[in-house]
From TrEMBL:
<dbReference type="Pfam" id="PF04954">
    <property type="entry name" value="SIP"/>
</dbReference>
<dbReference type="InterPro" id="IPR039261">
    <property type="entry name" value="FNR_nucleotide-bd"/>
</dbReference>
<comment type="similarity">
    <text>Belongs to the SIP oxidoreductase family.</text>
</comment>
<dbReference type="InterPro" id="IPR039374">
    <property type="entry name" value="SIP_fam"/>
</dbReference>
<protein>
    <recommendedName>
        <fullName>FAD-binding FR-type domain-containing protein</fullName>
    </recommendedName>
</protein>
<dbReference type="Pfam" id="PF08021">
    <property type="entry name" value="FAD_binding_9"/>
</dbReference>
<dbReference type="InterPro" id="IPR017927">
    <property type="entry name" value="FAD-bd_FR_type"/>
</dbReference>
<feature type="domain" description="FAD-binding FR-type">
    <location>
        <begin position="59"/>
        <end position="180"/>
    </location>
</feature>
<dbReference type="InterPro" id="IPR017938">
    <property type="entry name" value="Riboflavin_synthase-like_b-brl"/>
</dbReference>
<dbReference type="InterPro" id="IPR007037">
    <property type="entry name" value="SIP_rossman_dom"/>
</dbReference>
<dbReference type="GO" id="GO:0016491">
    <property type="term" value="F:oxidoreductase activity"/>
</dbReference>
<dbReference type="InterPro" id="IPR013113">
    <property type="entry name" value="SIP_FAD-bd"/>
</dbReference>
Length: 301
């Protein structure tokens, strides 16, 4: 007796196909089975290549210099960063995040170092940090961060007061989720916190020769914030003003998602994301094609 084992790896699982051959009497059956399983295996490989893929990036902390400060919309302030430390920067996922550090004014912050044993922090109090979507322009060697301006936020306060020549320390992105751009059917749900990632994604989809079917549901507190995505053309962006969670949920219920070749992305406040994503946790949906991530959490009153 002998057997053939073929390993087929996809995004997170390994499947083993085994064909047992007992004697030459089954030679014909052996050939037929091999063809069948190889065909099935190729289908599985093709399917797995259509899944989002996680990739690792070199973890580095960079001290960058503010090159420009731009109020690009009613709700967002753009900080454009540069410097030699940007060399080697990589961000391959549209919803990547970089860790941005905000030390207290007048305090000395020494960025941590990365060793084989992990991250080594210097002495003193670690500064506040927040996660932001990197908008990297490789040709100009510039990194833009779009800050949503609101009252009381440490990051928002820094962005409003930032000036050319200021410094800012960032870390990462440590890894990227590379999502194929050519899924035929794509759904995006976010609030203000996810709009930079959505902008990055839609700008990439604009460049495709064949555009996918895209539905974007964007919840904003003020209708004026819609101007942040006004330059994008040809996408169905539906605005929900006032953060009406029920209205978003009802709209999601109306969607007819195909059985295959789709991608669903939901971000925003933690509890809202958890609630909205539940309808996509049934057997009807492939969990590898649904990405739900909390971008922030509402503090208890």
């Amino acid at each position: 007796m002998f057997y053939i084992v073929r390993y087929i790896e996809d995004y997170c699982i390994k499947k083993v196909l085994a064909i047992f051959i007992t004697n030459n009497h089954y030679h014909l059956k052996f050939n037929l089975d091999i063809s069948y399983y190889l065909h099935e295996g190729e289908k599985m490989i093709n399917t797995s290549s259509r899944y989002p893929q996680r990739v690792r990036n070199e973890l580095r902390f960079r001290e960058l210099t503010v090159l420009r400060v731009e109020r690009i919309s009613a709700g967002f302030q753009r900080i454009v960063l540069g410097g030699e430390a940007l060399e080697g920067f990589s961000s391959r996922g549209f919803d990547d995040h970089t860790k941005v550090f905000f030390p207290e004014p007048g305090s000395l912050f020494v960025p941590p170092t990365v060793t084989d044993e992990g991250i080594v922090w210097g002495e003193g109090v670690r500064p506040a940090s927040r996660d932001y979507t990197p908008l990297y322009d490789e040709e100009r060697h510039e990194l833009a961060l779009d800050f949503f301006i609101h009252d009381g936020g440490v990051a928002s306060t820094w962005a409003v007061n930032a000036r050319e020549g200021d410094t800012l320390t960032i870390g990462g992105p440590r890894g990227s989720l590379v999502v194929p751009e050519d899924y035929a059917y794509q759904v995006y749900v976010c609030d203000e916190s996810g709009m930079p990632a959505l902008r990055r994604r839609l700008e990439a989809l604009e460049r495709l020769s064949v555009r996918p079917h895209v539905t974007a549901l964007v919840s904003v507190q003020d209708a004026a914030y819609q101007d942040y995505l006004a330059h994008l053309d040809g996408f169905a962006i539906e605005w929900v003003v006032g953060h009406d969670e029920q209205a978003i949920d009802e709209r999601l219920a109306q969607l007819t998602v195909p059985e295959a070749d789709y991608f669903i992305w939901i971000t925003g406040e933690g509890k809202v994301v958890k609630h909205l994503s539940r309808r996509f946790e049934t057997e009807q949906f492939d969990p590898q094609r649904v990405r739900a991530a909390a971008y922030w959490h509402r503090k208890p009153a």
